């Protein structure tokens, strides 16, 4: 499969805790650059040759040299020299020194300082804790005080999940006066979809996602999220003081939103993976914005709040594109009050105890699966099956249930296959 590298700029949440360590690394990267640059220029003048990376490592007198960030500085310098050396343009200058000059009112230089260079870590200097959105970046040997790593809590752009990290660069943003992490990830890309099939998704609260395939259906129950929500919300309310939220309340809110976000990430990822397995080329997701609140009551699955809906849609959109799956978002109106098997419309609530019971064809299906299957059929490429005789609705009536476990992600609860085993 083809892959591509993308760089995601992440905010550092615990900036005040890591700024000193990052400053020290940024300054020593500049210092090492200058030391090695001086040596390389000296060699150039004496021998007419530029030392390579290994020689720079051997000769640069610098005590933090064995650390990974330092080695990357020398690699960068070596590349800068070879591109200067290989350049046809005689006007090009060799790599310069990294320093920042400070001047007084009369333009006299009064002070010189190392600027904050970009610090680079590669895979073996990075530990990613994706459950807590943290990156452990190994420290240089000369900066080890207590911990031998810098623990950064990051916030990735909303639609991004950091996976297969190749490189992390700490970059000083002088406009914001903050460090940022530029995380390079490897992504698989497929330009063509894996299949031709169409799947429908119904998003909601009771069941965050119900997916209908032509021959199968999946149901994601909210087994994890509601318990968490209850706990963290209680925590947030009980500790809220008169003067705005307390630290603990703030903590509880952040924790809840992070968990919610992880859940939505895992949910969309699992959905897309199963679509790929099923050979899906088009994913149809119902857009609930046109549905009146008053109509919503008859829908078995309570409406997802706007924030969460948009979030899931962004994630799905982002992840499907990587697999070449097209996404359609038709209006969801009417999808919960008609039969997915025969098309019979029934304005009276037909969803009783979570089941859709059709007056015309007599089919009994899980209400949300019926909704998701109607959404699936909102796309012109799907022709609604006529009559119910051969419509094989058994799998629709009994969706596969996928349970979420925070450590292992989504796991199917395979009750039916267990029974079938001899
Ligand atoms: Zn029917």
Can you describe what's shown?
The longest helix has 33 residues, at 15-47. The chain is elongated. Helix content is 34%, strand content 25%. A hairpin with a 2-residue loop joins strand 15 (351-352) and strand 16 (355-357). The strands form four sheets. Strands 4-8-9-1-7-6-5 form a seven-stranded antiparallel β-sheet. The two termini are 38 Å apart. Residues 386-395 and 415-422 have low confidence and may be disordered. It folds into three domains: 2-18 and 117-188, no CATH class; 24-98; 192-420, no CATH class. With 422 residues, the protein is α+β, with helices and mostly antiparallel strands. It is built from ten helices and 19 strands. It has helices at residues 15-47, 53-59, 68-85, 225-238, 247-277, 293-296, 306-322, 367-376, 394-397, 415-420; strands at 2-12, 100-103, 109-113, 119-122, 126-129, 134-138, 149-155, 165-173, 178-189, 197-203, 209-213, 216-220, 280-285, 326-328, 351-352, 355-357, 364-366, 400-405, 409-413. It binds zinc ion. Residues 339, 341-342, 344, 358, 360-361, 363 line the site of zinc ion (ZN).
